[in-house]
Amino acid sequence: MNVSRRHLLQAGAAVAVLPAARLGATTITVAMPATVPRVAFLSPDQARDALAHGDAYYAGMGLQEIRARVGSALPGLSLVDARAAARDFDAAAVLPFSDDARAALRGIAERLQPLLLSRAPLYARTEWSFIQLDDRAEGGMPHTRGRHIVLPKAAVEAWTKKHRDLLAAGKLAQASFGNSLLVHEQTHVLERFHGDRFEPLFTQVFGFTRLPAIPQSAWLAAHRCTNPDGPDVVWAFDLARVGGSGWILPDVVLPDGDTPRMPEDFESVAIELAPDADGGHRIVVDADGVPRRRPLDKVPGYDAWFPFPDEDFHPNEIAAVALSHWILRDVPDLDKRPLMPAIADWATAGLA
Ligand SMILES: [Zn+2]
Fold it and tell me: Got the DSSP string for 242-255?
């Protein structure tokens, strides 16, 4: 999930070209086949099949989340039927890729490849696989499903235009549009298939503790917003690390109401945890059964603990944000940010 970039895309700013020196003016050729990235574009039929199968994504959705996804209160529908409606809504939003869009996306992957080969070879060895959805699906946010990066139409169209304009101007070789977003999303694909590599980053570097199972709560089941890029809400954080006390579970929820908006009504929250008799943790609830929680950005010291405060509601997102910057080196003070030396140490081995 990439909440912040959605707004950039809508403002037409996400395709800003970073300084040309970043990647150099390297022209990728097919002279060295091993360096050519593999890029796949799913047909609408393939995409519909990939979205509907392969994980339990829709099976775990609560009603508030489904209402936000489809933009309807879905009156009278059972939860089972509402989940089917969410699946069908996404399937109906699948779009094919034009030849120009394929050239633009392939171009981004090819321009990134030398950097990935030298800095993060695991990415260079991994196929890029793309699905395109109309912007009405998934709140218009880029995200991943299985091994596929799901792009909103707005991003594909913006990059296709950028590709065409820079090609005409003879400046395509220096282009860096799309780099940050695609490396972020491909990180989620890698997290899904190489969880054993990423776990030490989450625990030893970020400081999270993996709970044995997702803590259950009837209120959360109805209000949680499933992040396709971080569905395992099992990462507890000990506030003693940031000078506080007690444990929290970062999560994303939606408020009550007939048609909550996605992502405008998303709430990143810190849910209070307490030790249970088995040595684990349980969710602390008020007398009415509602989990005790507060906005995540109001937890003293939490945002500042990580190198970037955006999207720190799940370690998968913290890693995608930090590793994208680490690979692209597109932030001047990167090495001075919190945890970055340890993240760099992990990445050097973990992404080899
Ligand atoms: Zn993400």
Answer: GT--SEEEEEEE--
Distance, CA 227 to ligand 1 centroid (Å)?
9
What does the domain layout of the chain look like in residue ranges? Answer: 30-193, 197-350
For residues 239-249, average pLDDT: 97
Q: Ligand 1 centroid to 316 CA: how many Å? A: 7
CA 278 to ligand 1 center in whole angstroms: 33
The Cα 280–Cα 43 span in angstroms is 45
Of the chain, the end-to-end C-alpha distance in Å amounts to 24
pLDDT tens digits for range 259-315 = 899 989 999 999 999 988 887 899 999 999 999 999 999 999 999 999 999 899 999
Say if residue 64's pLDDT is above 70: yes
Compute, in angstroms, the gap from residue 107 CA to the centroid of ligand 1. Answer: 22
Ligand 1 centroid–CA 4 distance in Å is 9
- Cα 185 to averaged position of ligand 1 atoms, centre (Å): 6
Radius of gyration of the chain (CA): 21
The pLDDT of residue 29 is above 80: no
Determine the pLDDT at residue 51.
96
